[in-house]
Amino acid sequence: MLVAAAGVAVGGAAVSVPSAVATVGSFQAPQPKQSPQPKQSPQPKQSPQPKQSPQPEYSPSAITPAGAISLKLGSSQVSHGAPLLVSGQVRPARAGVEVYGQQLMNGRWTTMIIEKDQAIRSQPDGGYHGQLQIADTTNGPTEGKVQVRTCTGPFDNPACSAPATVTVS
């Protein structure tokens, strides 16, 4: 490598000339400019897919039960095997709404079986009254404190009253 530096005095003043660096024996060719990428040809058309039935859009109102229901017990104590009298209101008020009872068993709400001819239906003012039968557990008769509630709407997403406690003896 050859390096040259120079300093020159002109008219009594010192003038500094920057050093020049030269490399001998290697040469770098200038880099060519990047040419723009050629446009891609359009993709070949694929055969049309068979039409699928459209999926329904998620709508909270489609799965959320409309309205509310209240519960009033005829008594807070019932004898084993005796029916439990219930009454309350369905809102908004409308006639013919089926009301069913649920009982808390082993940590899960279980729907009480109601005979078809004994179904509880609301009146035009939204009021209802009927009888529910406390179910026995698989381990024997139900005794002690039992939580019950009344519900309306689909079994997988019902509108239910607040639970009430009944003592079964």
Structure commentary:
The termini are far apart. The protein is 2% helix and 41% strand. Mean pLDDT is 74; it is low at 1-10, 16-26 and 55-64. The longest helix has 4 residues, at 60-63. It has a domain at 67-168: Immunoglobulin-like. The chain is mainly beta.
Element pattern in H and E: EEHEEEEEEEEEEE
The CATH architecture category of the domain at 67-168 equals: Sandwich
β-sheet strand percentage: 35-45%
Mean pLDDT: 74
Radius of gyration using CA atoms only: 43 Å
User: And the CATH topology of the domain at 67-168?
Assistant: Immunoglobulin-like
- N- to C-terminal separation? 110 Å
Helix percent band: under 10%
Low-pLDDT parts are: 1-10, 16-26, 55-64
Q: How is the main sheet built?
A: 7 strands, mixed
CATH class of the domain at 67-168: Mainly Beta
Oligomer: single chain
Helix run count:
1
CA-based shape: elongated
Structural category is mainly beta
Q: Based on DSSP secondary structure assignment, what is the total number of beta strands?
A: 13
The CATH homologous superfamily of the domain at 67-168 is called Immunoglobulins
Key traits:
169 residues; mainly beta; Immunoglobulin-like; seven-stranded mixed beta sheet; four-stranded antiparallel beta sheet; 1 helix; 2% helix
Quick description:
The protein contains one helix and 13 strands; from the N terminus they run ββαβββββββββββ. With 169 residues, it is mostly beta strands.
Topology record:
Elements: E1 2-10, E2 13-22, H1 60-63, E3 68-69, E4 72-73, E5 77-78, E6 84-91, E7 98-105, E8 108-111, E9 120-121, E10 127-132, E11 144-152, E12 159-160, E13 164-168
Parallel strand pairs: 5-13
Antiparallel strand pairs: 1-2, 3-6, 4-6, 6-10, 7-8, 7-9, 7-11, 11-12, 11-13
